[in-house]
Structures are given as structure tokens and as C-alpha cells.
Specification:
The complex is a heterodimer. Chain A is α/β, with parallel strands linked by helices. Chain B folds into two domains: 248 residues, Thiamin diphosphate (ThDP)-binding fold, Pyr/PP domains (Rossmann fold, 3-Layer(aba) Sandwich); 180 residues, Pyruvate-ferredoxin oxidoreductase, PFOR, domain III (Pyruvate-ferredoxin Oxidoreductase, domain 3), CATH 3.40.920. Helices cover 36% and strands 17% of the residues of chain B. Chain B has a seven-stranded mixed sheet with strand order 2-1-3-4-8-7-9, sandwiched between helices. The longest helix of chain B is centred in the middle third of the chain and has 19 residues. Chain B is elongated. Strand 8 of chain A pairs antiparallel with strand 11 of chain B, so a sheet runs across the interface.
Chain lengths: 351, 478
């Protein structure tokens, strides 16, 4: 047996270490704390550093400092902590620093609860901090992907010099599934922009200040070009039974798993449903949705939120097809039975 | 010799190309400002100790936000108040570097209070220069945490009133109370003698870091003629005659003679050592064959519930591990958070031939209940023709439904007879396997190697598996 049974949160840390990450700064919060605990256990064993900071704000600024040093570095939290990190993430985006931020979403707003929600979509995907920036967002839906996408996050972060989010929910973080790991990556390349504390790199400056309006505009244009490149190159989706689908359900993370079961059941009833699961939330699979809108009759977005991703689907569909929304909040995970019923109603309304 | 004194330190850039001003030779600071003095002391020290190449200067928010115009070192600009956290990050990434965190009073003693306190408390091997001019200079003269009582600023127009704004924060005193810092001194810039003392303090604080001694902080009472609306000469008098009364100069802490230098050890691991260190090599490479069992038990969606401390989560995890070993698709989802602290615990386990959709088990096909509240709570949601396994030693009621299969097992009594009550969970787990025929007994025993952390408990849990399995098998419907 080459697989291990492991929690999603634990798999993230293993994935990060295999990706060459050797520094973790964090602050405990349910349901993300196992990430900090795993990092505390394993980072020192591989010659790395784990540091529990005094706050989320401090931890993201420590990430900023280490990222300025060109090393692979990460932090993790949940909604309330991500809100606090937004300041530092804006600075990292402005200073073009690669780093990985994991958000294990819980119920909100405010203290909310610790059950799984997907209500951080807006603050994570739309760039919750100040300024004209976005961060690539990877949304795993299994423990295997918690590891795999964390590794990919480091690659994307470095390739584009940007903070990258891994966005999952409390259940994906807490559940155990089988996971298989690859070989360690240890040759983190030396970056020509980073500050290493040596003569070669000492003329480098990590900063987000551009006092002159024209210069700041130019910097912002450069950032937008980067986001455009990311849109061109980094869109990832999983598709299930979409080829002849008349109805397209869209969901990410844990919801996409329930939707897959839902689609299977609907297909067995002869209803032509298909699933589009965005793996990247930014870049969002707009092009694929535009294509699907040409053949599908209707879209249904399912989220564990008040309907945040659905806005991106509506923007892509641009009024050409109805886009309906079904959401659960507060930590309630929709069941396949409930979604099957909802989808059947969609068809009934159509007829 | 005189020519040497006047020479610009090599640790400054020759011309300040990053300064957008047309004059690339002059700093951006106001006439009479103290930043120039401190910058020079730092640059001279870096020259003197030949540290500039290794140095990373953290510019804060405040007038020194453009510190990177001047220092021919690595430069990082930080968010307001966060310089000590940024310094921590880069120092931990590159421990050989010399990290200087340079902060003003608003930055360090107001918005960044947490960051400085904790960087100091951790004893980060960094050097902090704290420029205290009792005012927010860059934003135009608002109150600082170090603004003196009765001092007028744009946000204390009638003078700082302790009843409303509190008292000036005394940073050197505060930081020196902590265990970890090795050197804390307050100096002032108003005459040659005191500037000389300040210069020595700056040098010492940098040298401490190069010597791996730990955290040093120098607080510098520094003139801000623009913010204070005084001419430069009056500003110097004000430091001496007014400011110093509330901020006494002196060495507040100096452990540098006593502390041992510390450098974190470096580690080089092979790929194989990394994989071992992070525990991603499975315990066994053995393959375990699936059993044959009645179709109605296939793809069980299991809910395990009981008191916290009964090993409910472990029972579920062992079932999932057994499923993994026999090459099923499995998932295990615990109740987590406050629910775990006392009270009831439960977990959801899927063991499926097809991929697991939702890991949440809302309508279990199998309920394993280890206490009465769990049976009462979950009995109604078990699917028709499902299976309920419950511990009759602890549950004094019977299953009410007649449309489900029931396996009543005195698991806790059986565990007590074995000599360890805590093995009741493994007895119940094995009873499930014995009753349904899902899982080989050997597979269950293999899972114990992963599930049972204390190896001396392995033997008794193996017995528990045998007992439970036999009990379940003896009740298996023919």
C-alpha cells in the first residue's frame, strides 16, 4: 500500500515541505490549527523553521520578510485570520512577493462558527486587501489535492511573483483520506530580485511604494498584465459529464464532491446534467463557461455561502442563459438528495 | 585625520538614485532632523565592521520610509508597525544576514506595539533603532504614543491630556523588562557628547547581532523641528530641557557580557531522509485482499458516536485505515472543535467501492453507538435496512426500530474482562467486521499498528480485535 490515511490539513504541510518550503509562520485557529501543529512537528525535522507569531498580522508580515529573501514560505488560517492578514497580502502583492496562504474556511461573519463554509470567496478571490491586485486561488476538494495543489501553489507563486491562496473548507481540512506523495523538490532557484543578505543581491529593494502617480500607474499596469498572463495560462477545471449536458452545475471544493454524486444520480434518471468544477477560482474558467453557455440551457451554482462565486458565472454567461443559485450557510453541507431535488425542480420549471 | 571624519560612509550610496528628487546628493529629511545623524552612525558602523554586504535594512512607515534611498545594503520596505515582524521573517530565512529594523514612535510604540514586544521577547537576533521624536512627523504633526503630557500636536490642540490620551509610552523601560533582550539603551541627539554616546550605542547594537548575541534596541530622542514647529537649535534645547525629563537616558539592560552566542544549527538531508522525517513512508507495503460479504452491506456509510474519551474517533479512523489497506475508497470526518472537549464525539466514515462523494454521513447505513445519547440521537436517521451496533454495557435502552438490523454487544464488559476498558472501541470495530464480513481480521490487526501509538497496548488491542470479531461473526445472519 503506497498510500497514507491523513487529514487534509496534515497533507498540506507534507506537500509544502516536498515543494521545498522550509519556513512557516502562523497563528492557531480552528479549523486550520492542524496545519500549524504539523508544521511545528515537521519543519524543524527538515532543518526548517516553524514560528507561532503573536498575531495573524505579524505572521503574514513575517511571511513578507522571508518571501523578500527568495525562500519558499507559507502561512495558514481561517476566515477571521485571513481578514487580519489582508493588509500584509496587499503589501506582498504590491511588492510582488511569492508566498502561499492557506485558508481553511469556517462559518461567518464575525466569530460565526467553526463549521465549513465557502464565504471567504469574495475576500480571497477578489483580493480582500487594498489596491488593484488579485491572487491566484487554488481550491482542492480532496486530501490528495490538499497536498498536490499546495505544491502547485508554490510553483505558481514563484513563476509570477505573487501570493497564491489554497482555499479549502473546514471539512476538507479536517477529513482523512488516502493520499500519495511524490519526491521532494529541494532546488529552490535563486531569485534575481530577492534580498539574500549578500553582496550580489544587496542592490535589490523589496517595496510597494511608487510615489509618482505615473510610476504607480505603470506598476499597476504591469500587475494587471501579470494577472492577464495568469488568466491565459493557469485556468484549471475538472469536468464531469459535460459533453452533452443540458444543465450545468458549478461548484468548487467540498460542494463539487456532493455535486458529482448528484450528477450521477440525475444521469441515472435520464436527466442530462454535467458538473463544472473550477479548481482555480482566480483565474476563473470564464472561457469554458462561455463555451458551455452556447449549448447548455441553464446553469446552477451551488455554494456554501450567500452566493459569491455565482457572480463570476453570471459575468461569464453575460445574460445569455439563466444562472440559478443554491446555497447553504452556517456550516451546513448540502446533501446529494437535497441537490437532486433542487436540480429536478430546475428541469420541471424549464418544462 | 580630519578628512576621514568628513568622508561619507561607503555604506551609503554615492548618489541617491532612488530618490525621485532632482537633487540626488541631498537626503529628503528636513533641516535639523535627527534621522541624518542616526543614518550616519549606522552606515559608519556597517563600514567599520564590514557588514554592509550582509545587511538588510527594514524601512518602516514614517519619515524614514525612504531609508532605502540611502543605505547601500539589501532593503525591504515594511507596512506600518510591522518592521519587527518583517525583520523576523528575513532573519529566519537568512540567519547570516544583519537585519536592522528602523522605526519611529508611531510605528513602533502605537500601531506596532505587538510586533516589537514579541520580536524582543523572542530575542530575535536583530537590531532595532527606535527614533523617538514625540510626534508624527511625516503625517504632519499628530500625537505620538510618546508625545509628552501637555505637548501640543495637531490632534492634541490643547496639549496631551493624560485623562484622555494616557501617558507617554516608555519603550526602553518596557523592553528592558523582558527576559530575552540583551541590550537596551536610551540616548539623545542634542550635543556632541550625547551624539557620540548615541553613536557608540548604535555600533554596539549592530555588533551584538554580528556576534549572535540576540536582540538589541536603542531608543534615540531625536529632534523634529518641523513637527515641533521650532527652529533646529531650539529643538536641541527642548530635548535636553523637556524631553529628557520624561525619558531618562541610560543603559536599561546590558547582558552582552553574560549571554552565550547562539547560531541555529544547519541541516542537510537527502531526499530519503526528508521523506522519513515527514513520515510519508507507509507502515506496510503489504496488499490486503478484499473479503466477500452480503451485497446489502456494500459501500457502508458509517456513523460512530459516543462520549469524548471512548476512542470514538480512533474507532472510525481504524475502520477507514482498514478500508484503505483493502483498497477501498475511504474517508473519515470527525466532529471537531469545542464538541471534542468533553461531551459527545462522533465521526463519519465511508468505505466505498466507488469514489467518495460527500464525506458527510447524514443518513448512515451503519451506526456504531457507544453511549445512550448517541443511540437516541442517531437511531432515527439510520437508513431502512441499515445496521445499528451498540454497547449494551453502557446503554440501558433497546433499539426501537424494527426496520433495521441490530447487533447488541457488551463491548465495555468484554473490554474489562480483557483488562482494559479502553479497548471497547476496538471490540466494537471488530464486531462490525465480524458481523458484516467486511474486512479480514488480519487487516484489522494491521490497522492497529497505525492506530495504537503506545506499542505496549498493541497486544491487548489485538486480543480485543479477536474477541470482537468472533462475537460479531457468531451473530452474523446466515
Amino acid at each position: 500500500m503506497s498510500k497514507l490515511l491523513m487529514k487534509g490539513n496534515d497533507a498540506i504541510v507534507r506537500g509544502a515541505i516536498l515543494a521545498g518550503c522550509r519556513i512557516y509562520f502562523g497563528y492557531p485557529i480552528t479549523p486550520a490549527s492542524e496545519i500549524a501543529e504539523s508544521a511545528a512537528r515537521y519543519m524543524p525535522r527538515v532543518g526548517g523553521t516553524f514560528l507561532q507569531a503573536e498575531s495573524e498580522i505579524a505572521s503574514i508580515n513575517m511571511v513578507y520578510g522571508a518571501a523578500g529573501g527568495g525562500v519558499r514560505v507559507m502561512t495558514a488560517s481561517s476566515g477571521p485570520g485571513i481578514s487580519l492578514k489582508q493588509e500584509g497580502i496587499s503589501y506582498a502583492a504590491g511588492s510582488e512577493l511569492p508566498c502561499v496562504i492557506v485558508d481553511i474556511m469556517r462559518g461567518g461573519p464575525g466569530l460565526g462558527n467553526i463549521a465549513p463554509e465557502q464565504s471567504d470567496y469574495n475576500q480571497v478571490v477578489k483580493g480582500g486587501g487594498h489596491g488593484n491586485f488579485k491572487c491566484p486561488v487554488l481550491a482542492p476538494n480532496s486530501v490528495q489535492e490538499m497536498s498536490d495543489l499546495t505544491q502547485l501553489a508554490f510553483e505558481i507563486a514563484e513563476k509570477y511573483r505573487t501570493p497564491v491562496y489554497v482555499l479549502a473548507d473546514g471539512y476538507t481540512g479536517q477529513m482523512m483520506e488516502a493520499v500519495e506523495f511524490g519526491e521532494p523538490f529541494t532546488n529552490v532557484p535563486k531569485q534575481d530580485w530577492a534580498v539574500y543578505g549578500d553582496a550580489e543581491s544587496k542592490h535589490n529593494l523589496i517595496s510597494s511604494i511608487y510615489l509618482d502617480p505615473e510610476e504607480l500607474e505603470e506598476h499597476n499596469r504591469k500587475l494587471q498584465q501579470k494577472y492577464e498572463n495568469i488568466k491565459q495560462n493557469e485556468v484549471r477545471v475538472e469536468e464531469f459529464m459535460l459533453d452533452d449536458a443540458e444543465y450545468v452545475v458549478v461548484g468548487y471544493g467540498i460542494v463539487s464532491r456532493v455535486l458529482k454524486t448528484t450528477v450521477e444520480r440525475l444521469r441515472s434518471q435520464g436527466l442530462k446534467f454535467g458538473l463544472l468544477r473550477p479548481i482555480t477560482l482566480f483565474p476563473f474558467p470564464e472561457k469554458r463557461i462561455i463555451e458551455l453557455a452556447k449549448m447548455a440551457k441553464k446553469f446552477l451554482a451551488v455554494e456554501m455561502s450567500n452566493g459569491q462565486m455565482v457572480e463570476d458565472i453570471r459575468l461569464a454567461v453575460n445574460g445569455s442563459r439563466p444562472v440559478e443559485f443554491y446555497g447553504r450557510m452556517g456550516g451546513v453541507v448540502p446533501t446529494a438528495a437535497e441537490l437532486v431535488e433542487r436540480c429536478q425542480n430546475l428541469v420541471k420549471k424549464e418544462n | 585625520m580630519a578628512s576621514k571624519v568628513l568622508q561619507k560612509p561607503a555604506s551609503f550610496y554615492d548618489t541617491y538614485e532612488r530618490n525621485p528628487s532632482t537633487d540626488k546628493k541631498m537626503p529628503h529629511y528636513c533641516p535639523g532632523c535627527g534621522h541624518g545623524n542616526v543614518h550616519k552612525f549606522i552606515a559608519e558602523a556597517l563600514d567599520n565592521y564590514e557588514l554592509a554586504d550582509r545587511t538588510i535594512f527594514i524601512s518602516p512607515v514614517g519619515c524614514s520610509v525612504f531609508g532605502y534611498y540611502y543605505f547601500d545594503t539589501g532593503n525591504i520596505q515594511a507596512a506600518h508597525g510591522r518592521a519587527p515582524a518583517v525583520a523576523t521573517g528575513i532573519k529566519r530565512a537568512h540567519p547570516h544576514s544583519i537585519v536592522i529594523s528602523y522605526q519611529g514612535d508611531g510605528d513602533l510604540a502605537a500601531i506596532g506595539t505587538a510586533e516589537i514586544l514579541h520580536a524582543a521577547n523572542r530575542g530575535e537576533n536583530i537590531t532595532v533603532f527606535f527614533i523617538n521624536n514625540a510626534i508624527y512627523g511625516m503625517t504632519g504633526g499628530q500625537m505620538a504614543p510618546t508625545t509628552l503630557e501637555t505637548q501640543k500636536t495637531t490632534t492634541t490642540p490643547t496639549g496631551r491630556n493624560a485623562r484622555n490620551e494616557g501617558y507617554p509610552v516608555k519603550v526602553a523601560e518596557l523592553i528592558s523588562q523582558l527576559e530575552a533582550p540583551v541590550y537596551v539603551e536610551r540616548v539623545a541627539l542634542f550635543d556632541n557628547k550625547h551624539r557620540s554616546r548615541a553613536r557608540m550605542a548604535v555600533r554596539k547594537a549592530i555588533k551584538n547581532q554580528a556576534d549572535h548575541l540576540g536582540f538589541s534596541l536603542v531608543e534615540i530622542l531625536s529632534p523634529c523641528p518641523s513637527g515641533w514647529k521650532m527652529d533646529p537649535v531650539d529643538s536641541l534645547h527642548w530635548i535636553k530641557d523637556v524631553m529628557m525629563n520624561q525619558f531618562p537616558l541610560g543603559v536599561y539592560k546590558d547582558n552582552t557580557k553574560e549571554v552565550e552566542p547562539y547560531e541555529a544549527p544547519k541541516m542537510q538531508l537527502s531526499d530519503e531522509e526528508i521523506k522519513q522525517a515527514i513520515e510519508i513512508i507507509p507502515d506496510t507495503e503489504k496488499e490486503f485482499k478484499k473479503t466477500e460479504y452480503a451485497e446489502r452491506y456494500a459501500n457502508p456509510e458509517i456513523k460512530v458516536a459516543g462520549f469524548g474519551g471512548q476512542g470514538v474517533l480512533l474507532l472510525g479512523a481504524a475502520l477507514a485505515q482498514a478500508g484503505l489497506l483493502e483498497n477501498y475508497n475511504v474517508s473519515w470526518l470527525p466532529s471537531y472543535g469545542p464538541e471534542m472537549r468533553g461531551g459527545t464525539a462522533n465521526c463519519h466514515v465511508n468505505v466505498r467501492n466507488i469514489p467518495v462523494g460527500s464525506p458527510v454521513v447524514n443518513d448512515p447505513t451503519v451506526l456504531i453507538a457507544l453511549n445512550r445519547p448517541s443511540l437516541e440521537k442517531f437511531e432515527p436517521v439510520v437508513v431502512k435496512n441499515g445496521l445499528i451496533i451498540y454497547d449494551t454495557s453502557l446503554i440501558d435502552i433497546e433499539v426501537q426500530r424494527d426496520d433495521v438490523e441490530v447487533l447488541a454487544i457488551p463491548a465495555t464488559e468484554m473490554a474489562d474482562k480483557l483488562g482494559n476498558t479502553r479497548t471497547a472501541n476496538m471490540i466494537a470495530m471488530a464486531a462490525f467486521a465480524g458481523y458484516t464480513g467486511i474486512f479480514n481480521r488480519e487487516t484489522l490487526k494491521e490497522t492497529l499498528k497505525t492506530a495504537i501509538k503506545r506499542k505496549k497496548l498493541l497486544a491487548i488491542n489485538e486480543k480485543a480485535v479477536d474477541e470482537g470479531y468472533e462475537f460479531g461473526k457468531s451473530k452474523r445472519p446466515s
